[in-house]
Amino acid sequence: ESVEPKACYWDADFYRAHIVEQLLPFWAHHAADSQYGGFITHLDRQGRVYDDMLKTAAMQARMIFGFAIGYELCADPTYLRLAEEGVRFLIERLWDPHAGGWYQEVWRDGRVKVTDKSIFAQAYVLIGLAEYCRITHDPIAWEHACWTYDLLEQAAWDEVNGGYYETCGVDWQPISNAKTICIQLDMLMAALCLYGVTPEEHYFRRARQLADLIATRMRDPRYGCVLERFSSSWVYDPVSTRDRLQMGHNLKTAWLLLRLFERTHVEDYFSTAIEVLESCLRCGWDETYGGFYQHVYRNGVLAKDVKEWWPEC
Predict the structure, then answer these.
(1) Fewest CB within 10 angstroms: 107, 178, 211, 250, which?
(2) Residue 157 DSSP class
(3) 277, 125, 259, 252: which is closest to 204 by C-alpha?
(4) Could you give the CA distance from residue 121 to residue 179 in angstroms, rounded to a whole number?
């Protein structure tokens, strides 16, 4: 029997109640690390910790994002305090005081484990700090966000071909100059979040540049989907992924292009977003049980019958 949407799914109050009454209290109660600061993010369904060894910059920033939004939604000072404590841990333990930028991973107590500057991690820290600053106007957090963006522009942006490299070392020398859809999407979202804090046009210009690159360089017009991995000069690399694509990245592409269409009314953003979304519905949607599969071959054949949380989000 096919899954039909419930009426409550169209109701904004349904989602607000879910966030305020279920999601935020769960993470506030179970994730805050009272011993070392920051957040423990490997929890089971009951909130029990199953792994407390490591903390990543990206996940710490996601928690800051969530609690900042929580404070905006319901003005509960608990969520503001948790977001502030998260920012403090992030800056004290994950910021590189020598070369700038964010270490990828630390041990629970804040000792550095992985010093590489993953652009994925930098992007999510930008997203988390930008939303936190939009709500709190914290000057120290904003200063770190601006420093991070400037470092990315100097070290990770390809001035010749456009796009962001995948990974830099601790000294900001590129380790991998591949161009992945993941990094371009996350940096597009980061640029939009930064633009939401301050109306400086260079953030919005960068977001549009990335959207144009994704739509023209990373999309396969035959199948209507975006592909995963390219060389620095935008030559598609099907070998590393076995020519598979991820539904999550395609859904995220449609979402971000639609956000840009709302701001610009550029018809190409709308038509490309719909084309990508229709590809996802055609190739990735489970007609029997509902939800999107994650791994699909470029030609539309299902690669794995696995569903992951983030494509559904």
Answers:
(1) 107
(2) B
(3) 259
(4) 15
For range 100-129, the mean pLDDT = 97
pLDDT of amino acid 3: 61
Secondary structure class of 202 (helix, strand, coil):
helix
Contact assessment for residue 161 and residue 177, using Cβ atoms and an 8 Å cutoff: no
Question: Residue 46: CA atoms inside 13 Å, Cβ hemisphere, count?
Answer: 2
Identify any residues that bridge with 285 across adjacent strands, giving them in sequence order. Answer: 292
**Residues counted in the chain:** 313
In angstroms, the CA 60 to CA 65 distance is 9
Cβ neighbourhood burial of 119 (10 Å; 0-12, 13-18, 19+): buried
Alpha-carbon gap, residue 277 to 249, rounded angstroms: 11
Query: Dihedral angle at the C-alpha atoms of 67, 97, 185, 298, nearest 10 degrees?
Result: -120
Are 155 and 102 spatial neighbours (Cβ–Cβ below 8 Å)?
no
Q: What pLDDT was estimated at residue 8?
A: 82
Q: What is the pLDDT of residues 227-279, one digit of tens each?
A: 999 999 999 999 999 999 999 999 999 999 999 999 999 999 999 999 999 99
Query: Where are the strands (E) in 77-223, listed by range?
Result: 105-107, 112-114, 117-118, 167-168, 174-176, 179-180, 219-220
